[in-house]
Amino acid sequence: MYNDILVPTDGSPAADAAVEHAVTLADRFDATLHALYVVDATAYSAIEAGTDIVAEALETEGEDAVSRIAEAADDAELPVIESVTSGTAYRSILEYADDNDIDMIVMGTHGRRGLDRYLLGSVTERVVRSANQPVLTVRDRGEDADEE
User: Fold this and answer.
1) DSSP for the chain?
2) Of 42, 80, 107, 112, which has the maximum CB count within 10 A?
């Protein structure tokens, strides 16, 4: 039923919570796990000086985030494909899913916080509304405490 499962990550606790579910599903269905981090250059396009430094730092953060997913997959003896790309987050996730014949997307309900989230909208919401694949959203257990 599910041969390829995509886990987009931004390195947040919500994304980490989704990894646990994705690993369980991939194990259950003997699927390949795809770990994806998108360096969202559009969010930082207004910065005139130092954009290379910011992009490099975000790429390093992305490599660390997908490595954590790969470790979880390795621990469960699952095949994993790691990818760090750049672009608009929700568009890149949807393109990756379509280009790689992804059967299911598993992602956290909230990632980055603050002004970016309110200006750009929720990446998860856009993926849920636009994906051709089923999308499982996972809420970070720590969110309840943050919202009180």
Assistant:
1) --SEEEEEE-SSHHHHHHHHHHHHHHHHHTPEEEEEEEE-GGGGTT--SSHHHHHHHHHHHHHHHHHHHHHHHHHTT--EEEEEEES-HHHHHHHHHHHTT-SEEEEES--S-SHHHHHH--HHHHHHHH-SS-EEEE--TTHHHHH-
2) 107
